[in-house]
Structure formats: C-alpha cells, structure tokens
Specification:
The protein has about 80 residues and is mainly α. The protein contains five helices and no strands. Helix 2 crosses helix 3. The longest helix has 11 residues. The radius of gyration is 12 Å and the shape is globular.
C-alpha cells in the first residue's frame, strides 16, 4: 500500500501550487531531503507525516494509501 504514498504527497503539493522548495521550507527540511521523501528514496519520519497531513488537511492514513478518503478523522 505504501506505493501510493509518494504520488499522493506530490499531487497534494502540486494541488497547492507549491514547489518542492516551498514545501521543504514549510517542513523545515532541505529541498533535497524533501525531494527524497517525495520520490520514496528516504522514509518519511513520523513528524513529517504529521506535518504533511496537517498542511494538506488530510489524514495520515490517506497519505499512506490506507484509505482513499482524504478527509481527516473527526475528533470527539
């Protein structure tokens, strides 16, 4: 399932009209590091997954390809 993660991360970034450099800046990483996250060459740390989900108003499960529903879970 993880294979879906990398295209989703890229698509979400592009939907926001952000460059890799801009997204990297938001995540406080270098553009090279972000590029490696997006290509799958480097595993995403938990905190980066959380930040990406927050940035894109989606769930980590959506980013990981565990669901096709991009809506974040509702909190009680």
């Amino acid at each position: 399932m993880v294979i879906f993660m990398y295209p989703r991360i890229r698509a979400l970034r592009e939907d926001c009209d952000l460059s890799q450099t801009e997204m990297a800046r938001l995540l406080h990483v270098s553009q090279a590091t972000y590029s490696r996250y997006e290509s799958g060459a480097l595993d995403l740390p938990t905190q980066i997954l959380i930040s990406l989900a927050d940035q894109h108003h989606t769930s980590i499960d959506y980013l990981l390809g565990r669901t096709d529903d991009p809506a974040p879970p509702e909190h009680a």
